[in-house]
Amino acid sequence: MPYRLSAECVLAAHFAFICLAVFGGLSVLRRRALALPRRPAAGKRAPA
């Protein structure tokens, strides 16, 4: 039972992060000033 609860918490956290990335990205399209606080969620680009 504790493993199931842990798995559901991890699943909820991943889903919340995906929602943050998607809806936050859409909000940046509307207001460019929101891009700076969202920068850490985007991560760094890998060198080419």
Account of the protein in words:
This protein is mainly α and 48 residues long. It has one domain (2-41). 77% of the residues lie in helices and 0% in strands. Helix 1 crosses helix 2 (35-42). The longest helix has 29 residues, at 2-30. It is elongated. The chain starts with a helix and ends in a 6-residue tail after the last helix. The relative contact order is 0.11. The mean pLDDT is 79.
Beta content comes to under 5%
Main sheet properties: none
Order of helices and strands: HH
Briefly note the structural class of the backbone: mainly alpha
The number of distinct structural domains comes to 1
Fraction of residues in H or I helices: over 70%
> Roughly how many Å is the radius of gyration?
15 Å
Instruction: Tally the beta strands.
Output: 0
Distance between the amino and carboxyl termini: 45 Å
Overall pLDDT confidence: 79
Q: Regions with pLDDT < 50 over 5+ consecutive residues?
A: none
Overall outline: elongated
Quaternary assembly: single chain
Number of helices: 2
